[in-house]
Amino acid sequence: MTGEIRRASQRGYFDYGWLKTFHTFSFGEYHDPDKMGFRSLRVINENWLNPAVGFPVKIHQDMEIFSIILEGGVSHQDSLGNGSIMRAGHIQLMSAGRGLEHSEFNASDRDSAHFYQFWITPSQKKLKPSYQSKFLDPATRQNQWCLILSKDGREGSLQINQDVSVYLSNLSPGVELKMELEPNRYGWLQVMEGKIVWDGKELEDGDGAAISRSEMLQLKALKTSRIIFFDLD
Fold this sequence. Notes:
Elements: E1 2-6, E2 12-15, E3 19-23, E4 41-49, E5 54-60, E6 64-71, E7 73-78, E8 83-87, E9 90-95, E10 100-106, E11 113-120, E12 130-135, E13 146-150, E14 158-159, E15 164-171, E16 176-180, E17 186-198, E18 201-204, E19 208-212, E20 216-232
Parallel strand pairs: 13-14
Antiparallel strand pairs: 1-19, 2-3, 3-4, 4-11, 5-10, 6-9, 6-11, 7-8, 7-10, 9-12, 13-15, 15-20, 16-20, 17-18, 17-19, 17-20
């Protein structure tokens, strides 16, 4: 097994007053030429958004952008006419394609929102923009893998324009989990919350790991944890 750990403390960090944000890879004002992404996974941002504030309308192109809400609610509006409030347990996927405008605001005027946002480069450019969202029943990912994104939309997952499969799991302390990685595939493991052991190493809140040349991923939760795994081309 070959793997490289990206510790939470190594991420770029900015506190704008209304937003606290950590960047695993280069993004915005944070630039590290050695951390420009991993395979097609380009951005991993962890955000805390203050009440009643957010990101005004902006436009994206040729990027698959998906978000996972951990706490609170985020209001989404876009140029396709979609409008929704995403709460804990929701995932959303925007395929920006040839151009998609959208805004995101904290839906509460009292509580902050905590969420992860991931950007993946698509397999083709200038595709038709689209938006998908889904609420995940907690039971579907409790102590097991739940497929949330795939290129073919199998098992009820959201369909993404890239050869990638993305899995979520919520783990109880002591639970062990495995994932087989096919030859010539790569993995990224992100601990969103909690603490686990992977390959004899402890990973906790905000830590990530790039994985290659591994036939079997094995991990164990040391405390209640929320993790996400990317199976990448």
